[in-house]
């Protein structure tokens, strides 16, 4: 399954929600799975982004749906990156 990196920033509303209900993080992960993707790794981060998630989804359309569904709530802004395993990239560069 293709891998995607979700870089997330909480909105003011999202930060308030998270402060009042920290377990919301796990609930959102379950919602992501109900939308057809799988959270492989998740990190709370300091700096420009509040969360970094490594997610698997069947294709770009599936991960786009996840991003839109989550962003539509107004609690988070997401930047999505497609990720290629380094060994796969090396193989492609070597003509494999």
Could you estimate the helical fraction of the residues in percent?
Answer: 40-55%
Percent strand equals 25-35%
How many structural domains?
Answer: 1
Regarding quaternary structure, what we see is single chain
Computed structural class? alpha+beta
Let me know the average pLDDT.
Answer: 95
Report the C-alpha radius of gyration, rounded. Answer: 15 Å
Contiguous runs where pLDDT drops below 50 for at least 5 residues: none
Shape: elongated
Strand order, sheet with most strands: 2-3-1-4
Largest sheet: 4 strands, antiparallel
Quick structural summary:
With 96 residues, the chain is of the alpha+beta class. Helices cover 42% and strands 32% of the residues.
What does this structure look like?
The protein has 96 residues and is an alpha+beta fold. The protein has a single domain (3-93), classed as Alpha-Beta Plaits (2-Layer Sandwich), CATH 3.30.70. It has four helices and four strands; from the N terminus they run E-H-H-E-E-H-E-H. A hairpin with a 6-residue loop joins strand 2 and strand 3. The model has no long low-confidence stretch (mean pLDDT 95).
């Amino acid at each position: 399954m293709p891998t995607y990196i979700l870089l997330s920033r909480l909105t003011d509303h999202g930060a308030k929600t998270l402060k009042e209900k920290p377990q919301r993080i796990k609930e959102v992960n379950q919602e992501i799975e109900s939308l057809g993707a799988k959270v492989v790794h998740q990190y709370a981060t300091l700096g420009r982004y509040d969360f970094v998630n490594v997610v698997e989804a069947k294709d770009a359309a599936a991960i786009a749906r996840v991003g839109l569904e989550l962003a539509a709530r107004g609690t988070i802004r997401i930047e999505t990156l497609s990720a290629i395993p380094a060994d796969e990239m090396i193989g492609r560069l070597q003509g494999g």
